[in-house]
Amino acid sequence: MRPAEPVDPKTVAQALANEFAKTAVTRDQLGGTPKAERDQIRASGLLGLIIPSDLGGLGASWTETLDIVRTFARVDSSIAQVFAFQHLMLATVRLFGTEAQWHPWFRQTAKNNWFWGNALNPLDTRTSSEIVAGQREFHGKKSFCSGATDSDMLIASAIDAESQKLLIAAIPTTRQGIILHQDWDNIGQRQTDSGSADFEHVRVDEAELLTQPGPLSTPFACLRPLIAQLIFSNIYQGIAEGALAEARQYTLKQSRVWSASLASDIASEPYTLLHYGEFWVQLEGARLLTNRAAELLDLAWGRAEALTAAERGELAVAVTAAKVATTKAGLDITQRMFEVTGARATTAALRLDRFWRNLRVYTLHDPVDFKLRELGDWALNQQYPNPSFYS
Predict the structure, then answer these.
(1) Is the separation of the CB atoms in 359 and 329 below 8 Å?
(2) Among residues 282, 352, 263, which one has the least CA distance to residue 28?
(3) CA–CA gap between residue 338 and residue 344 (Å, rounded)
(4) How far apart are the C-alpha atoms of 23 and 159, rounded to whole Å?
(5) How far apart are CA 293 and CA 60, in angstroms?
(6) Would you give the DSSP letter of residue 259?
(7) pLDDT by residue (tens digit) across 258-313?
(8) Calpha distance 38→180 (Å, rounded)
(9) Across the strands, what pairs with 167?
(10) In whole angstroms, what is the distance from residue 283 CA to residue 329 CA?
(11) Cβ–Cβ under 8 Å, residues 352 and 258
(12) Where are any strands of DSSP class E within 106-239?
């Protein structure tokens, strides 16, 4: 009997995306947890995409992983966010923890198809940590817990009551005292489960704390925010590419030539062609910047603990430029797409506005104005962005 042929992750992802596209409009209306879609991803084996092959994963590069994130984002950016955060959480334990911690977590994730959720949100300091009767506890509230519902593991943060330092831990989602609320009902990214959580005296073992080397402690550990920002850029890019693809199909099949136009059909209408030309230039420029940043991330990831501050700084500039470009191109395309589709394209049945709604919500994650200021400081003063949880 011949061994099974190795599965191409990109082919698997495209097949999943084709399925997700069939229900994307309906699920955008419903909101809530995309349980069936998450289970499809579990069964696909893609949750171990970034995990090295010797630990049971697929051993993909960041370029390959982010390409799949973008594939999902073209049809359903909520699924793309939940899937991408899986790999951001895995990167978090790799960057902030010890080999003795992340090796077994990686193996179990690959073996059991664990989904990881986010309850970090460093700007929300309402969760504190203290030692009670010899046992560390997390207690308080946390907002924007994307992907936490239906997850198996959580990355959670708290402020240490004694030192006032940020503590980050990897804990089972089913741990007693963790309460996840279904209170995410925003205009976009409606199935990311980015609601709130309560931590009611949740036990956290010392072996679950990511303190060696800890958050943002070395140039390599400082890759975590850059991975997050590049994830955002790829999702923004995917949303814009998906919007343009749907607009193109509608234009060619449904749009009409305006009565004052001299064109005989919509495919030769000059103003329509002008708009599509503008869209393509914006999208292509953003794509090239985003791809280049992914290539630099792979180089930095390969350097591991040998990564220098200057190398990290070069990557930060590239990632920040991609973030700005994808934000601006995406917002322009997703709102101007109606200029090339027409009034009938605004029917609620199509929900073409979901592309703009999703992008508008997601691009407010952290202000792009501050990204431009950082790039200005680089362009004028040759100062790299200062490492933080957002740069």
Answers:
(1) no
(2) 352
(3) 9
(4) 41
(5) 16
(6) T
(7) 878 777 889 989 999 999 999 999 999 999 999 999 999 999 999 999 999 999 99
(8) 17
(9) 158
(10) 6
(11) no
(12) 116-119, 128-132, 135-142, 153-160, 166-172, 178-180, 197-203
Q: Is the pLDDT of residue 7 over 90?
A: no
| DSSP-derived secondary structure letter, 383 | P
341 within 8 A of 254, measured Cβ to Cβ: yes
At 325-358, the pLDDT tens digits run 999 999 999 999 999 999 999 999 999 999 999 9
Per the document, the length of the chain is 391
What is the Cα–Cα distance from 117 to 366, expressed in whole angstroms? 20
CA distance 94 to 114: 16
List phi, psi (to 5°) of 157. Answer: -130, 155
Q: Which helix (H) or strand (E) holds 108?
A: helix 99-112
**Pair of tokens at residue 372:** 């431009």
Pair of tokens at residue 223: 């890759």
Which residues are CB-neighbours of 14 under 8 A, at least 6 positions away?
71
> Smallest Cα–Cα separation from 242: which of 6, 1, 54, 24?
24
Letter string b/e over residues 362-379, b meaning 16 or more CB atoms within 10 A of that residue's CB: bbeebebeebbebbeebe
The CA-based angle 112-207-41, given to 5 degrees, is 20
Pick from 164, 95, 153: nearest CA to 128: 164
Give the helix ranges, DSSP H, for 254-343: 270-303, 309-336
Residue 2: both structure tokens together: 């011949």
* β-pairing verdict for 166-172 and 128-132: unpaired
Cα 49–Cα 91–Cα 46 angle in degrees, nearest 5: 15
